[in-house]
Amino acid sequence: MTDRAKIANVRSIVQQQQSKTDRRKLKSTGRAMVALGQTSNGSKEVRKLNDSVGIADRARADLANMEESKLFSDRQLDMLGIVHPRSKDRRMVDAMRQLRTKLYALQPEGNFSVLVSSVVPQGGGSFVSLNLASTIAFDKAKTSLLVDANLHDPVVHKLLKLIGRENQFGLTEYLEHPDLGIDQIVSPSGIPRMRVIPIGEHDEMSAEHFTSARYKQLMQDIQSRYDNRFVVVDGPAMTTSADARILSDICDYTILVIPYGGVTPGVLDSVVDEIDESKLAGIVINDQPG
User: Would the pTM of this model clear 0.90, i.e. be above it?
Assistant: First the structure.
């Protein structure tokens, strides 16, 4: 099944579930319903109650009070190719957990930011970044934030469309409009404890955006705001865009993704040579035969 067919099938399931939800709301007259628009007020109350506690305690309190407006079912995640704790594809789950564990070992204390980039276009970088962010969020004591910085082939907006948040501001708008705050571009993903920043409207966005002080400050802010938040950046292919190298310099670590049999040793060596040795966390081979 193609990615396009997967998206279409999942969209149909989401629409059916939304219809059921609407009907249930009509039948629930007299019940206590919490409007989604009250989330921000609730968060303010949580912050007031935690003014006197440490950063770690505040982060745990915020995590406990996260509200998920719409969540994908296990079946939908399977159709989208996103791992979850109950995935039937245990080989993929184990592989992503191993990748997550290796990253944790590089940074045993605190969180980190990691760029995931394919060496060549269509090499599976977005697939790995999406599943790495999802796997980090398996742990109920941690959250992940997936930043879509792939101007050439963005993927996060497809998830947001399925959960009805396709009009969400994104990275482009944030970098071009100083009046936008971080809270206006961070969105639920449909996956528990995982947040996303979509690319936004990016027709005229260039690599210079990633060298700006505002982007560097954004990366610092989203990583330091919560000490249990791990930032995964989905970047473009290394061999076709200068953006990927810029993004690698800003992140703590870089993971390279290569399609099985799709990259020559010479191409891989040239890409590795351009990355700071201390930042290269590893290389993932995608679509390797079992």
Answer: no
